Amino acid sequence: MAKNNNFEIRPEQRQSWQSIAAIWAGGMICVPCLMIGGVLSGGGLSIAEIIASILIGYGLICAYMIFIGMQACDTGLPVSVMASGALGEKGARYIISIILTIACVGWFGVQSATCGSAFASMLAAMMKIEVTAVMKAICSIVWGVIMLATACAGFKGLKWLNYIAVPLLVVVCLYGLIAGIVNNNGGSMIMNYAPEASNGMIFGISMVVASFALGGVISADYCRYAKSRADVVKSSIVGVIPAGLFMLLTGAMMSIVTGQYDISAILASLGVPVLGLIALVLATWTTNVTNAYSGGLALSNLLGLDESKFKITTGIAGAIGTVLAAVGLLDAFQGFLSLMSGLIPPLAGVIIAAYWVVGKGKKENFRVKEGFSAVGVISFVAGALFACITGGTFANFPALVEAVPILNIPFFVGPVNGILLSLVLYVVLNKLFPRKAN
């Protein structure tokens, strides 16, 4: 294996599969997962379709997550280095940086809007006034600035808030669900829930895949600490599926009872006390600092700046996310998820193809390629475009689809289509143009 051996972890740094699984479970217990559960029920899916979508969606993520994780376990390398085996050093740098920047800035905006909405609900309840869009926007900006300042300052005490916020959010979710069932005749509503029109399982699976698409790709950064390939498999399945099923299903059921997927509005309508909304703010705060920080580092890498400038780029990334929150990114949540489901999974396709098919899954066959790998970049771009076309991503832009109808041809599951095309195309192009792959 050539170059970048300085990135490899040492044997004594290897961790148990349980500790890695705990990282994934902690990542799944978050506000966006509740919201996505609400999106599924809001899309008219039945309870059975929701459960099936969750299991299939996270099953698909675990499948490519495991292959990427096992490669990371073999090589001891993070995804940014692993991807250079398929995309070339510059290809990996720019493509991954662009994707991470878009994802992190977008999630920062979504979570700032969620936090602002929750805080506005608290203020309205205390002052006994009606929540307005302006009030939500102002609160989103205020909390966006607070979270951004925390990310730039590196407030280490936030990790202790996380230890409180995650368990508290689980308790609040259970309380909210029980309150809805007991006080709002929710049990009957859930039992009799029979939507007239459903967006279908394809919609459900795509939304679920989008919820953790990025996590599945960057799983290498954590799975490289696993002791064996078997530990990668166990940590991925045990860490993702149970927690994901619990959070999405809880969000879906609370949405069925209230008829909306804005989690702060759901908790307020269910009569959850102020403590519940505080838990929501804390959980969003601790998660969003990571979004701002990661987005800033990705932007630094994209612009060719060293890590010492991360405060500047973190400020830029967070400021963009805060503006998006204020102008209503939360309302475009489904569109953002659709974009993520199209752009991210195909990256896994080329990484898997390069290591497991072309490299036959052997560590000694892996090597970093200089510059751009035309085969890798073309395969990824084609896969991402195909995923967006068949997954309905462009349907969020009606004028564009009207002008170019071929941009929206729903077929099977967009993210899966993208992975398969990028994987197969990489293998074929690698055989046709072996020099271009190097």
CATH architecture: Orthogonal Bundle
Unreliable runs, pLDDT <50, ≥5 residues? none
What is the strand content? under 5%
Characterize the largest beta sheet: strand count, sense, and whether it forms a barrel. Answer: none
Shape assignment: globular
The CATH superfamily bears the name: Hydantoin permease
Overall pLDDT confidence:
87
Distance linking N and C termini: 14 Å
Number of strands: 0
Structural class: mainly alpha
* C-alpha-based Rg, rounded: 21 Å
In total, the number of domains comes to 1
Contiguous helical run count = 20
List the secondary-structure elements in sequence, H or E: HHHHHHHHHHHHHHHHHHHH
Q: What share of residues is helical? A: over 70%
CATH C-level label: Mainly Alpha
CATH topology: the name is Hydantoin permease
Describe this protein's structure.
It is found in: Membrane. One of its GO terms (molecular function) is cytosine transmembrane transporter activity. The protein has a single domain (15-432), classed as Orthogonal Bundle (Hydantoin permease). Helix content is 74%, strand content 0%. It has helices spanning 17-28, 31-42, 47-75, 79-82, 84-87, 89-127, 133-153, 158-183, 186-191, 201-217, 220-223, 229-258, 263-269, 274-303, 310-326, 333-343, 345-358, 374-391, 398-403, 414-432. The radius of gyration is 21 Å and the shape is globular.
Structural topology:
Blueprint: H1 17-28, H2 31-42, H3 47-75, H4 79-82, H5 84-87, H6 89-127, H7 133-153, H8 158-183, H9 186-191, H10 201-217, H11 220-223, H12 229-258, H13 263-269, H14 274-303, H15 310-326, H16 333-343, H17 345-358, H18 374-391, H19 398-403, H20 414-432
